[in-house]
Automatic annotation (TrEMBL):
Name of this protein: Aldehyde dehydrogenase
Catalytic residues in the record: E261
Family: Belongs to the aldehyde dehydrogenase family.
A matching Pfam family: Aldedh
Species annotation: Pseudovibrio japonicus
Key words of the record: Oxidoreductase
The Aldehyde dehydrogenase domain, residue ranges: 28-487
Superkingdom of this protein's organism: Bacteria
Length: 492
């Protein structure tokens, strides 16, 4: 078999290992999963297929590490120093990690670099924040001192998707470790290699064995066993709404909390006074980033009727110039993650075309892109009927839906008319309108005259409705990854 001209026999596939209690290990069954490069459709590495028994070992290691003096005696500032050291090591290994992330996920190389730099920034941010978390004093009586303190949950289970392995791992691990938790992370079977590498760097950065464990494997095996493990104290899940419901049931079964970061169908509202030359390139770039496989991609664009023709012309030109190619070539977009995702995205487009929805513009696939890779073209459709799956469902591919509107009320109604509520964009220079609309949108984040798909280490992030609950990123995450205790002292 060949990968970019290199012949790899099955024995030559690089073997990655899980990390349990500070030791690199295979799964107890000895079985492995082949990692496929989406750019070529060919395997290039293997990971252990961890079982429920391995989950038990990892959770026990995390539980033991929680009580070990090596971890529990560290001050918040000392935990912060280690997070800073980890950020430094990620930066030193930037080239290697960016190449690995791009190869594993298929994203263009420059986006791989962006993800590694953002991951380092998460560890820096939470390294600095670790010793800034304070409690309150509460004036209940003159002869009592009442106060609140924040304590770690204990063992946190983190289940990570394949689209931004490094960033999502870093935002969870940065905040959870800053608060003194220990972690068992189950990254996705489709892309997880940067997470394994970074966890090994964390040992070098001075995190004691068992504080950060990585279990590779399948969602329905290792992921399910982890989410139901009774020794886990808190779960954070990022992924699809269906699996999110299962995770919430598992958390309920064990009476523990969870945060769910699920999907989105985020609207971008372009009002009649918007600067199209500023808005449309941002809208296009944020949609095509990571091949449209971004939970916060603004995949539904509501365009004021008066700008419809101009917006169509400009987006048609923009989408026609978008080229999909292998990660190494750093085109506008890479391949999708796997064959089933490619089939799924293409099925949405075929259905839209069968239903008579106009395809307004379409990009191309680079002629030298390997035919076995999972490539699809960037596409823009419109007008898309509001109730059509293309306007309601998360396609998770490079597909933009345009919907016209006439009034502010209609725009708000359309923007809120899906099951999701993750991010929204508002494009207008009328500050009163921008504020009114931002307040009326049911969404975890609203951007005005800009859009931050996936961005913003400092910005609390999370959804409402089917997009999930709980907040990660920024200082808010430190609250999610800790529990508030009230202490009352009588000094009468
Ligand atoms: P997915 O739900 O299939 O998988 C996510 C993770 O869950 C993977 O690690 C997988 O192995 C694991 N998993 C699968 N089945 C499981 C089970 N039964 N029990 C426990 N774990 C299980 O999602 P995906 O296809 O990997 O990711 C795409 C979805 O994630 C999209 O809906 C996207 O919008 C969402 N997402 C959300 C955010 C966010 O922050 N809101 C970020 C990225 C992706």
């Amino acid at each position: 078999m060949t990968e970019f001209g290199t012949t790899l026999s099955s024995r030559e596939l690089k073997k990655y290992r899980a990390l349990i209690n500070g030791l690199q290990c295979d799964g107890s069954s000895g079985e492995t999963i082949e990692m496929i490069c989406p750019s070529t459709g060919l395997p290039f590495a293997t990971i252990p297929r961890c079982s429920a028994a391995d989950v038990g070992r990892a959770v026990s290691a995390a539980r033991a590490a929680l009580g070990s003096s090596e971890w529990s005696s560290l001050s918040a500032g000392q935990r912060g120093e280690r997070l800073h050291r980890l950020a430094e090591l990620i930066t030193q290994n930037r080239d290697r990690l960016a190449e690995l992330e791009a190869r594993d996920t298929g994203k263009p190389l420059s986006q791989g670099y962006g993800d590694i730099d953002t991951a380092a920034q998460y560890f820096r941010f939470y390294g600095g924040a670790a010793d800034k978390v304070t409690g309150d004093t509460l004036p209940i009586a003159t002869d009592h001192l009442a106060m609140t303190v924040r304590e770690p949950h204990g063992v946190v289970a983190s289940i990570v998707p394949w689209n931004y392995p490094m960033q999502i791992f870093a935002r969870v691990a940065g905040a959870a470790l800053a608060m003194g938790n220990t972690l068992v992370v189950k990254p996705a079977e489709d892309a997880c290699l940067s997470v394994i590498e970074t966890a090994n760097l964390a040992l070098e950065a001075g995190f004691p064995p068992g504080v950060l464990n990585i279990l590779t494997g399948l969602g329905e095996e290792a992921g399910a066993a982890l989410s139901f493990n009774p020794e886990v104290d808190f779960i954070t899940f990022t992924g699809s709404p269906d699996v999110g419901s299962m995770i919430q049931s598992a958390a309920a079964r064990n009476h523990i909390g969870c945060t769910l970061e699920l999907g989105g169908k985020s609207p971008q509202i372009v009002f009649e006074d918007a600067n199209l030359d500023k808005a449309l390139p941002v809208i296009q770039d944020c949609l095509l980033m990571n091949g449209g496989q971004t939970c916060s991609a603004g995949s539904r664009v509501l365009v004021h009727q008066s700008l419809w023709d101009e917006a169509i012309d400009k987006l048609r030109t923009g989408f026609r110039s978008a080229v999909a190619g292998p990660y190494k070539d750093d085109r506008d977009l890479g391949p999708l993650i796997n064959a089933s995702q490619l089939r799924r995205v293409n099925a949405f487009c075929e259905q839209a075309e069968a239903d008579g929805i106009p395809l307004l513009g379409e990009g191309t696939i680079a002629p030298d892109a390997p035919v076995e890779g999972y490539y699809t073209t960037a596409k823009v459709y419109g007008p898309v009927p509001v109730e059509h799956p293309l306007a309601q469902d998360e396609v998770f591919g490079p597909v933009l839906s345009l919907i016209p509107f006439r009034t502010e009320e209609e725009a708000i109604h359309l923007a809120n008319a899906t099951a999701y509520g993750l991010v929204a964009g508002v494009w207008t220079h009328d500050i009163s309108r921008a504020t009114r609309v931002a307040k009326a949108l049911r969404s975890g984040q609203v951007f005005v005259n800009t859009y931050g798909a996936g961005g913003g280490v400092e910005l609390p992030f999370g959804g409402v409705k089917k997009s999930g609950h709980g907040r990660e990123k920024g200082f808010e995450a430190l609250k999610e990854f800790s529990v508030l205790k009230t202490i009352v002292v009588s000094h009468a």
